Amino acid sequence: MSTQNTSSTERTRTGEGREPIIELQDAEVTFEMERGTSRVLDKVDLTVYRGEILGVVGESGSGKSMLAMSMLDAVDDPGILSGQVTYYPQDDDPVDVLNLSDERLRQLRWEHISMVFQGAMSSFNPTMGIREHFVETLKAHDTDVDEGMERARELLSDLYLDPDRILGSYAHELSGGMRQRALIALSVLLEPDLLVMDEPTAALDLLMQRSILTLLRKLKEKYDLTMLFITHDLSLVAELADRMAVMYAFELVEKGPTNRILRNAAHPYTRALLNATPNLDAPLSEMRPIAGSAPDPVNVPEGCSYHPRCPLADQQCVATDPEYHAVTDVHDAACFHWEQAAETIPMNTGVGSGDGETDGSNDAETDGGVDAGTDGSDDAETDGGVDTETDGSDDAETDGGVDAGTDGSDDGPGGEI
After folding, report:
1. CATH number for 271
2. What global pTM score does this model have?
3. How far apart are CA 390 and CA 410, in angstroms?
4. What is the mean pLDDT of residues 38-48?
5. Distance in angstroms (rounded) separating the CA atoms of residues 116 and 123
6. Which helix (H) or strand (E) holds 234?
7. DSSP SS3 for 231
8. Residue 302 domain flag
9. Most buried one in 83, 94, 237, 355, CB count within 10 A?
10. Is the residue at 182 inside a domain?
11. pLDDT digit string, tens, across residues 216-233
């Protein structure tokens, strides 16, 4: 995608008066394969602001996990991460993440930026008790174990878990929801500024998913967390996120306040995605699958990567990669024909036109977000929504875990965290 320094532009337009916590500029991840270069993150620009919850949504294999791993410089070999990743600590100088020494990178992970991976079972070492995971993490980061374990007990209690039972168990002795909550507690043990969550509710039932969302909101307020929430479930983003970014073919195609995008999406892919999701405003017969399939990372189409599936595509789309276009001061879409998208692709929710202010809710002009369901408004997209996957599979661009040990390496499935 042609961005022309859109990251700094985004920071100026949507972040006036707000403090960035991490910024990606031209972030790209490639793998060299026999049949060519596999580009699984394609020149992504993104700014996350301190105190917000940013949701990233997209199909399986769209690059969401690579985006998350890039923020911690944790892309597995032989993957190559290029571009710029800048972390902005509070009251300190910006940190160039990709040029850190191994020791500084180890300190950054978990102490400043932490991550909750897909599948808690694969994140815990099955030969270690839960208590050992907490103790090892504290020791690896030279933190007082007694004080740290007191904080661990408090975190587990905040997540409505019995600390004695959890700390005295192995991962396989806990239910899926208990494991996931224990992993969240472990991830915020060292009081990070930013918590990156990659499909943290993918393996949980609907009721447990909603419970986890409620707990995440409480943790955010109590511990002053910033969150990046990655999912293929639009309903979860609608319920939790202040802002959202839509990912297609390894790049971000639309960014803006969640309420505005859900009610007035500008990119044809986003509108098609919403029309493929069940909601209370439309019968199932009006759901429309997205024709075609996502591109192969080795053979992404020239021009706009969505043009083979887009009803608005013309020769300009085939030949030229679109820049971001300002839909509003806080809403960008990478589409030449975003102004025609509403007419060509009507929304089956009944709220897909206008300026997005149909219910008097916060339009996020100044704070970049919606109320996340706390004002009693009825957001039809959040009721009974399904994921954006077409095959029911998890988004498994990566299945490894970042090691909280001393060598900064990635132990992969079942490795120590």
Report:
1. 3.40.50.300
2. 0.80
3. 30
4. 95
5. 9
6. helix 234-240
7. strand
8. yes
9. 237
10. no
11. 999 999 999 999 999 988
